[in-house]
């Protein structure tokens, strides 16, 4: 029996499948000794065969199932069952049914279709003869094996324990019979039982014993099955690398053996390991391969399962439309083949996806019928999940009483099934509903129960979430100090977790949950500041804001699966990656153990391994800080205290840091020797006004200051602090949608003109980033070259620059990441950027050809961008599509040439994660053709992540456009900017201000649309 992840056991017990009553309703076929019968068997169909045998004879049938799920039972003339067997999903080995005939008479063999898909099997009456010595022993061994398989199908704890006893009883009999083949098959069944019991160690041991036998027999198919199962055992034990190694070996053997089904199973298992360890792109490619394989094999049930698995991956990637499409394909296929249990699960998945997409009505349209079908098919755990999500949908519709009722029903089932983690989640949903009904005390009862459960299963992210919910309840009770203590514990837990561990456990809600915890922390501190202003709570709140930004960047890098190699010694990096992977795997193992049945020894061993790995990782972190400080500053951020922030500020420079919260937003104004804080409207109000302002500013022809939303936003963001800002340089640390707002085009109440007219302006990812930039660039020698320019890349085969004869009508394929990012940015096609050639030439004319690198046409490719050549230039200018993805920041990046001179496709998308590995010695990076679409959900890390990547790569400043500025206006502004930098020696911040004020002074370019879209991130000096 080859195991795979996600295989649901839907067979009933043999006793319920085969009964004597079938014989009166079915035609009976006679069997002849030595002759084979091949028949098509449909789901639920029963074939009946008759044979006459004399008392004491040895009767043996052999069934070749060809992967058909079936059960067979041999009945005496009186209708008593004297032998039986069962074939489980995917099994192909010959099944024996044998017995010593007790009395003379006609015996019946009943073969029942046990699965959901029809298929052919072959039956042969192999032996009918006097009983020989040793055959009683074989009958007993086969009976024990068959009984063990039947007990395994039942799946209860008691039946699994009994299955172990029966299968172990068969093993010595096979050894006495010198039957290595059946010994190996029995060991495989025993391993599968241990797998179901969650005992991965015993599972691995018995599969290794089977592997040894298969090898001695020269049976490559059996060897492949055993290695596949050993791979699963290692993964279950949190040993990812060993799991993948065994699965790779299993796949090779199964290919050699021509085991097509086995190949599909092993590829599927490999994909699941990648998916569960967070490598979703690899998982996606493998699952797509699995889908094709099951389809080619005509296995509609597994094809539907593959559609479902792909949907789950797309859901985790945040691609709701694709996820729903694949869930619906799985649903249609399962409906077609009559798999009602699978159909119910797919309806549940579709409903859950609509909950995630904030569409509660469509969610209920699917969840309600799913609940009905789950109940009809006896899927209690699925029923609890459906009720849980129905409750969430009702809560989203404001129907809190219904949400409570649904969640209570879900919780009752989860308690019955001893589902500890789901109980904790449902308890939190119940508590949240109670809070919305204004019942914080009742909510606290639920949250405390969930907290105990989260701790009992060792789920620290769930524990953090629950502590945060308790903090909300205490806040609503007016107990602010108690709430603050709890939120401090919650955030400390978040920060103690490796980002990857947290991400993979609660990926779908992790980012929103984490951001919400920090905002609640800030809100509580500011509440205490309003109550006790002399105690410095506003100072602490600013420091929490800096911690939140540091964590947000770490999570972005995790989401992008960035493998940063620059700034770290290779040996340390290899050790860090190996230890991190091992620690992540063991942590996942611990959570799985605690959430299921386990032995004290299993848990103790896992806990010991985690302690040892944690200690080793802590020691390595210390070594990284000493030997690779730049890498450590990124991966182990130590946000600045306020006094350290103030030391970064020049006289005449103010830091403006914004935090957007659920109940209030906050502005801190920090000077070299001062700090003031101001309450602003809540996040939703700020976002509505900011979006309208963005639309006004980024629309052609809008006059400066003419928009009502622009003026309203300036008043909202600056009004309370307006008097404090006069005559100062402004360094802005924005959040969320505000990172896409051109502050230069806003107005400050009481000031005449726009911000750009009265203030030099820069933006920062965080205040702490500035300290790191200065530390890294201090004392660095200036690069010998002036400007390296990437312009006018080639995006498709139809481009006339592609060699004639190599221009097929079809466009070149692009990476899935680029396709997704472009789609989400609203870009239907990547048009050629002809005007960037003039932009590039104008810059070269100012810099001098001898001090410039022009990467045009096909040379404007990713290979050039990632070469060490760029380290020799002070300015690196990218005049190409730069995508700032506000929905999925990890997909932000630069689009360079996508084909070579012959039209061959090449990867030209330089993603955020790859930017961190560039080798730059530049003082400035310019991104002059950015594309941004503000989606429904805006995470500012799309902009911050990309610009921060260039900073990590060596550039202390990044000049980027916030929308696609017209070509002529871009060229004109860039001429003026470079003239100020290269000709007049201005700092980039001063040069940008000069270029913008100069351009807007001309009537043709007066509208902010033409000049305000450019913003400088980073160092102002």
UniProtKB/TrEMBL annotation:
Keywords tagged on the record: Signal, TPR repeat
TPR repeats: 304-337
Pfam family membership, one: CHAT
Entry keyword Signal: yes
Source taxon at top rank: Bacteria
Signal peptide from the UniProt entry: 1-25
Listed InterPro entries: CHAT_dom, TPR-like_helical_dom_sf, TPR_rpt
Domain CHAT: 712-1018
Keyword Transport: no
Cross-referenced SMART domains: TPR
UniProt xrefs under PANTHER family: RAPSYN-RELATED (PTHR10098), TETRATRICOPEPTIDE REPEAT PROTEIN 28 (PTHR10098:SF108)
Protein name: Peptidase domain protein
Lineage of the species this protein comes from: Bacteria, Pseudomonadati, Acidobacteriota, Terriglobia, Bryobacterales
